[in-house]
TrEMBL record:
<keyword id="KW-0732">Signal</keyword>
<keyword id="KW-0812">Transmembrane</keyword>
<dbReference type="Pfam" id="PF13145">
    <property type="entry name" value="Rotamase_2"/>
</dbReference>
<protein>
    <recommendedName>
        <fullName>peptidylprolyl isomerase</fullName>
        <ecNumber>5.2.1.8</ecNumber>
    </recommendedName>
</protein>
<dbReference type="InterPro" id="IPR050245">
    <property type="entry name" value="PrsA_foldase"/>
</dbReference>
<keyword id="KW-1133">Transmembrane helix</keyword>
<dbReference type="InterPro" id="IPR000297">
    <property type="entry name" value="PPIase_PpiC"/>
</dbReference>
<feature type="domain" description="PpiC">
    <location>
        <begin position="168"/>
        <end position="260"/>
    </location>
</feature>
<dbReference type="InterPro" id="IPR046357">
    <property type="entry name" value="PPIase_dom_sf"/>
</dbReference>
<dbReference type="GO" id="GO:0003755">
    <property type="term" value="F:peptidyl-prolyl cis-trans isomerase activity"/>
</dbReference>
<dbReference type="InterPro" id="IPR027304">
    <property type="entry name" value="Trigger_fact/SurA_dom_sf"/>
</dbReference>
<keyword id="KW-0413">Isomerase</keyword>
<feature type="transmembrane region" description="Helical">
    <location>
        <begin position="7"/>
        <end position="28"/>
    </location>
</feature>
<keyword id="KW-0697">Rotamase</keyword>
<keyword id="KW-0472">Membrane</keyword>
Length: 314
């Protein structure tokens, strides 16, 4: 996945989390029994600290304030995209889903590792991720409807951008982030003298202040945009078992250890051509946000007045 694609996927994750967050309280509210609500004010206490409580209305108001506009807009977008896909006869195939999920999970040890990370970091299960991928695919197919990409265009793009389809590699990294260059030099020297990097890592982590990010970074893509560029530039030049440092990063330094390296399985020619076709078609299409807005206009979406309704520009 490119840096741009990862950035877009981050936005999608945020949207999905907000939908899940607000959808969660809607579901919970629907499951409340009539007896759960007090007769005095129609409110319900959902949490307590000593004699103080947080009411359901307070909870809902906070969720609406934080996620209401984003969630409502995304729910409306899903409705209009589903309607337009049905009108055009657009189908999202299992092959479409597998290809997109494979791109999304690139840089992880396995599909399972990707799903586990999304569950741990964002609370999204595999069904949530598949549903989000299905929405993205449907929206892209609507946006590129009628756009023709010639085989010669695919050939030319492949010829001009061979690096995008070269067999990449993943690096299993560990790092220590000392604040002083002298300390980094001492750590590097101890490794060169035969000490285990894991031992130094444990020793260093025993007195962290909570802001230190030293530790096992795990498997990362060689061009992972979420790791400091200086670290990845150094790591790409190392072999398995090598250490490097001190590397100047942010307001300190890093000493890194390459635990292992593995090459990614190359995609076949059909997959590459399909990926290029999709990218070239999207490049000619209107931005997806504009497509969503045009569909909302087409299907007459409007926000009905009501208490605490979020302000949304449709």
């Amino acid at each position: 996945m490119t840096t741009r694609e990862k950035g877009l996927w981050t936005i999608v994750i945020i949207l999905t989390v907000s939908v899940a967050a607000l959808g969660g309280f809607i579901m919970l509210r629907g499951l409340l029994k009539p007896g759960d609500v007090t007769k005095d004010d129609g409110d319900h206490t959902v949490a307590e600290m000593g004699q103080e409580g947080i009411s359901e209305e307070q909870w809902i108001a906070e969720l609406k304030k934080r996620y209401g506009a984003t969630t409502l807009l995304q729910m409306l977008n899903r409705k209009v995209v589903e309607a337009e896909a049905g009108r055009l006869g657009i189908k999202v195939t299992q092959e479409d889903l597998q290809q997109v999920l494979k791109q999304d999970s690139k840089g992880y040890a396995s599909d399972r590792a990707y799903f586990d990370e999304m569950q741990q970091q964002f609370g999204l299960n595999p069904d949530d991720l598949r549903n989000e991928a299905e929405y993205r695919i449907g929206l892209e197919k609507i946006a590129t409807q009628g756009i023709q990409v010639q085989e010669t265009e695919i050939d030319e793009y492949w010829k001009q951008h061979p690096e995008e389809f070269a067999v990449g590699k993943q690096i299993k990294l560990a790092a220590i982030y000392p604040t002083q260059a002298e300390e980094a030099e001492r750590l590097l020297e101890r490794v060169k003298q035969g000490e285990s990097f894991d031992t130094l890592l444990q020793e260093h982590s025993s007195h962290l202040d909570g802001k230190d990010k030293s530790g096992q970074l795990g498997w990362v893509d060689e061009y992972d945009p979420f790791q400091p560029q200086e670290i990845m530039e150094a790591a790409r030049e190392l072999s398995s078992g090598d250490v490097a440092g001190p590397i100047a990063v942010n307001d300190g330094y890093a000493v890194i250890f390459v635990q292992d390296i593995r090459l990614e399985a190359p995609p076949n020619e059909q997959q590459i051509r399909q990926q290029i076709r999709r990218s070239l078609a999207l490049a000619q299409a209107a931005p997806l946000e504009e497509v969503e807005k045009s569909l909302r206009d087409k299907y007459g979406v409007r926000i009905l007045p009501g208490k605490d309704m979020p302000s949304i520009s449709l």
